[in-house]
Amino acid sequence: MKSVKLQLLATLVATVVTIVAVLLPVATSSDDDIREAAIRYHLRNVQERDVFFVQVGTRDPAADFLVRFADVPWKVKAASLAGFRKSGHVVIDPQTGKDSMILKVGDIAWNSPWHVTVSYGYYVANMGAAGYRYRMAWQFGRWVVVAKESLWVS
Fold first, then answer.
1. Tell me: the pLDDT tens digits for 135-152?
2. Domain ranges of the chain
């Protein structure tokens, strides 16, 4: 009888932990999960390039963050590795000379345990850049963009 009660208690605890993990993102996710979801959202809606460069705030992301994109069909590198063509200040991959893009994820504001606001932008050239505010929600155990507000375009 005692072992049955212990098994039931263990099952109950495991169930509660799983429910909390799915429902409460603060318990299971990090700011990098939010940044990754924002970048993946952008990559789904952009013209393909051989390489994308990423910036987090004003710095390069950590190497372990870039590894998260190993499954995408193009390379994702730190923004400091980007080059620029003199005419129009166009972003290029210095290794290939091909046009590219810098993706920038800025501040994250937690509006609730299930909702965040993220500043996001991209830079292709002097007259090819934009800034957005993504509203994101924790849905079914992952972060998704639910609204995109354009802040500026050049």
1. 999 998 899 999 999 999
2. 29-153
* Cβ–Cβ < 8 Å for 112, 118: no
**Tokens representing residue 8 in the block:** 């039931």
- pLDDT tens track for 91-126: 999 999 999 999 999 999 999 999 999 999 999 998
The DSSP code for 100 is -
DSSP 3-49: HHHHHHHHHHHHHHHHHHHHH-HHHH--HHHHHHHHHHHHHHTS---
What's the token pair of residue 64? 């372990």
- Beta strand pairing call for 102-112 and 51-56: parallel
Buried-exposed string 56-66: b where 16+ CB fall within 10 A, e elsewhere = beeebbeeebe
Closest CA to 124 of 72, 151, 85: 85
Please name the residue that has the structure tokens 């051989």: 50
pTM: 0.80
The CATH code that applies to domain 29-153 is: 3.10.450
Question: Alpha-carbon distance 10 to 119, whole Å?
Answer: 42
One-letter amino acid at 1 equals M
Which token pair is 14?
């495991």
